[in-house]
Amino acid sequence: MNRKKSESLFEEAQRYIPGGVNSPVRAFKAVGGHPLFIQKAKGSRLWDVDGNEFIDYNASWGPLIFGHAHPQIVEAVKRAAENGTSFGAPTELEIEMAKKVIDCVPSIEGVRMVSSGTEATMSAIRLARGYTKRDKIVKFEGNFHGHGDSLLVKSGSGLMSLGIPDCPGVIEDLAKNTLTLPYNNGDAVVELFDKMGSEIACLIVEPIAGNMGVVPPKEGFLQTLRDVTRQHGALLIFDEVISGFRVGLGGAQKLYGITPDLTTLGKIIGGGLPVGAYGGKKEFMDHIAPVGSVYQAGTLSGNPLAMAAGLEMLNLLSAKGVYESLEAKSQRLCDGFRKNAEEAGVPAFFTRVGSMFSMFFTDEEVVDFETVSTCDLEFFKRYFNAMLEAGIYIACSQFEAGFMSAVHTEEEIEQTIEANRDALKTAKG
Ligand SMILES: *Cc1c(COP(=O)(O)O)cnc(C)c1O
C-alpha cells in the first residue's frame, strides 16, 4: 500500500503543528509509522490522500454512528448554513435539541449546550462544586473526561498511549483535589467516602468505560456509586460523551437503570460537528448563570450548524430498529473476531456493549486500568498495521474502543472478519 503522500504531508504538518496533529491521539505514536491524511469519507468508508480505501471502525472516535457524510445530515447542515452560521442569540433549533435530549435521557430535565465534551465535564464539575460548596472530586483510573485540569489525572487512552503518567501544567493544588480509584471496585468507593465523604463534591464516571478500551461496569458497581454519593450528599456525574446515544437513546443510564444527578454528552449529539452538553435535574441546573451564580458561557454554544447536524442524527437514531441492527452487526463482528483468536491461539479478552467493543490482547479478565495494562502492546502494534494494510481502519491504540455504524454492511463485516483472521496470524508471526 502506497502511503507516500500521507508521509510527506505529515512531515510538512510537523513543521507547523505540534506533532503534526491537532489532537495527540491521531499521531500513530503507539503503532509506529505516520498517520493517514484523509481526503474524504462516505458511509463506512474512508479514503486517504494516496487514494487508499478503508472500512472505518473509528468513526471519528465515536460520533459517526450513521457513518460519514450521511445525506440527511449533510442536507441539514447546508440548510442551516444558508441561514447564517452563528448569531450569538437564541434560536428555535436549540429548544428542539434540548427537548429531544430531555425526552431521551432519563436524568435530564434541563440541558446546556457547549462546544466539546471537555467543556461539558469541566462545567458539570464546576456546577457540582458550586452546588455542594465542596472542593474534592472523585474519578476512576483509566476513565477519560476530556482535558480539563481537574480531570487530567490518571485519565486513559491518550496519555496511556503516549506513556504520560501525570500532565505538567496541572497545578498541585488542583490535582490534590482529584481523588482517583480503581474502576469497578465498589468497596474502594465506599471506603473513600466513609473517610472523607463530607468533602467530596462529586464522583464522575464513564458508566461504560470507553477510554481504556471498552470496559463495561460490573454488576452492581453503578448502583454502589449511586447509593454512596446520595448517602454523602455528593453529586453523581455520568460522563456519557461516548455512551450517550451509542448504547441506546437513553445512554448507559437507561440501559442499566441508574439515574445520575448530572450527565455529560458529546460526540454523537453533534452529528460530527463540535458539540458537548451537560444536563440534569432542574434543581441542579438552576444554579447555572443566568439563573444561578455558577458561571459558564460560550460564543458558539448551541451553534446552529451543530444543532442541525445533531438533531438530524438524533432523529435518524430514533427510527425503529436502529439499535437492534447495530447490536446484531456488532455481535456478529465480535463473534468472528473471537473465533479467529481461538483458532489462531491468540490470547484475547473481548468486551462489548451495543456497538462499542474491544479486543484486548491479554489472557487476563479486563475489569480496570491495572488489568488493561497487562495487554501485549507489541502484538497490538503488529495487528494494527496488518489490519491497516488490509484496508481496515481501527483506532491506533489498544486502549480505544471500536465502533460499528448503522451503515456498515454484512459484506463489510465479513471482509473485516477475514482481515482480522489474517492480521492475527501476521501479528503472531
Ligand atoms: C471524548 C470524550 C470526552 C472529551 O470530549 P471532547 O469533545 O474530545 O472534548 C470526555 N469524556 C469522554 C468519556 C470522552 O470519550
Automatic annotation (TrEMBL):
Reaction(s) catalysed (UniProt annotation): (S)-4-amino-5-oxopentanoate = 5-aminolevulinate
Organism of derivation: Nitrospina gracilis (strain 3/211)
Pathway field: Porphyrin-containing compound metabolism; protoporphyrin-IX biosynthesis; 5-aminolevulinate from L-glutamyl-tRNA(Glu): step 2/2
NCBIfam families with a match to the protein in the record: hemL, PRK00062.1
Compartments, as annotated in UniProt: Cytoplasm
A molecular function (GO) term: transaminase activity
Protein name: Glutamate-1-semialdehyde 2,1-aminomutase
InterPro entries xref list: 4pyrrol_synth_GluAld_NH2Trfase (IPR004639), Aminotrans_3 (IPR005814), Aminotrans_3_PPA_site (IPR049704), PyrdxlP-dep_Trfase (IPR015424), PyrdxlP-dep_Trfase_major (IPR015421), PyrdxlP-dep_Trfase_small (IPR015422)
Entry-annotated residues carrying N6-(pyridoxal phosphate)lysine: 267
EC number: 5.4.3.8
Gene Ontology BP terms: protoporphyrinogen IX biosynthetic process
CDD domains the record matches: OAT_like (cd00610)
Record keywords, A-Z: Cytoplasm, Isomerase, Porphyrin biosynthesis, Pyridoxal phosphate
A Pfam family hit: Aminotran_3
Enzyme class: isomerase
Record keyword ATP-binding present: no
Keyword Isomerase in record: yes
Known cofactor(s): pyridoxal 5'-phosphate
Subunit description: Homodimer.
Single GO cellular component term: cytoplasm
Family named by the database record: Belongs to the class-III pyridoxal-phosphate-dependent aminotransferase family. HemL subfamily.
